[in-house]
Amino acid sequence: MKKGRNGLVIGLTILITAAAFWTFTPLALAVPTATNIGVADAHGYTDAHVLVPVNITNVQDGPVPSLIFDILYDNSVINVSEVQKGALTLNWDTPAYCNHEWGTRVAIVYDSVDEHAIQNGETGSVVVLNFSVIGELGDTSVMNLSSIQLAEGAPDYQIGTAPAINGTFTVASALPTATNIGVADANGYTNTQVLIPVNITNVQNGPVTSVIFDILCDNSVITVTDVQKGTLIPNWDTPAYCNHEWGTRVTIYDSIDEYALQNGATGSVVLLNFNVIGESGATSVMNFTDIQLAEGAPNFQIGTAPAKNGTFTVLPYGIINGQLTEITGAAMEGVNVTLTANDSSVVLETTTTNETGYFNLSTVEAAGYYVNFTKLRYWDISTRVTVQSGETKTVNVVPSRKGDLNDNGISADAGDVTMMLRASVYKLTPDERYDLNNNGRLADAGDVTMMLRASVYMIELL
């Protein structure tokens, strides 16, 4: 009986001891972690600085108020020159770092405001490493994270960790550039619009995904009213521009990689639509500054290219003038005068002759034209003229009266009737004035009839 009681006492003692242990020993809680923390592959150019974000993915068992890590790299290729706050740590204290022969140790702690700690589920950059690129073209360096420490807050400040995502840094070729970018000399006339292409020549170290430039000009002479896409960028976003007192800033951007400007590309990137304000003889520079050629992801490095500057000159208009007279020498008032381009029927300018038969077209751009003269009872006349800037061309014309075949200033007189009849039986050779009915046949029966009827005032030859 005593032995049984002793066994019962021992058993109770063990249970009491175990209960006391679980009562007074805290449960071990999970320490902070994340899906991973690390860097992506990156590249940069010798003597350049490259920003490489250190990203944490899906924080767990947080919040995390501080972290420490080592990043190992070849400091003959890259070297940390600065550590900046990341997107998740903007309110934290400035990061501390120390370079070693093997790489850099980084530490960052929050600002003691609990809500600024990194919360569960958060993903983003914790710091941004500013690497100075020392190596030569083609050199590479590991970017391996180790000794990763994620601290929890009060009261226990337990330390967790997370798997590392390591990257490789490659020293790439030079920044994006081109042989040049700019405009050729251009000219235009007061109160006209002139499209001037901005051309890039031989893109190098691309592809180029965006372009920014300033163009300086005298806005009392010319001013940009619109910027259109060039031949190289039909699929890019619509160009953005802003006019200033010194000129215009232009920005163009592409978000689809295959549309970027590839190496060797040459052509127009934008078309500048200038409104010409200045007077004849005025000039303006078209000088390019702050040219930026951006590469794409992941580094978005900015290069430039030499500027090709131009000069805009406001041209003097040409003038076409002259006088229209009857075959008798009398001035012809009221003749309609129109100006059309050689390759178009579109009327560019129009006027009428005054009481002295004089006309003047005073805003004629340098080109080839037809000057057309029309008036009832007279045959239409078109004269081809080529005009240079500032040149005056004089065109004196003697229109033929319809029905006046003998050129005496009288329509459908006995002489005209006789000439029409003789031409109808091939006794003389007719010209286009013998086609009174405008059917393309000279001195046919219809033309004879019209001449005879006009001679007795039964019709008027209009």
Automatic annotation (TrEMBL):
Annotated Gene3D superfamilies: 2.60.40.680, Carboxypeptidase-like, regulatory domain
Any GO molecular function: carbohydrate binding
Any Gene Ontology biological process: polysaccharide catabolic process
Stretches assigned to the Cohesin domain: 39-170, 182-312
Coiled coil: none
UniProt cross-references to InterPro entries, sorted A to Z: Carb-bd-like_fold, CBM2/CBM3_carb-bd_dom_sf, Cohesin_dom
Pfam families, alphabetized: CarboxypepD_reg, Cohesin
Name of protein: Cohesin domain-containing protein
Organism annotation: Candidatus Methanophaga sp. ANME-1 ERB7
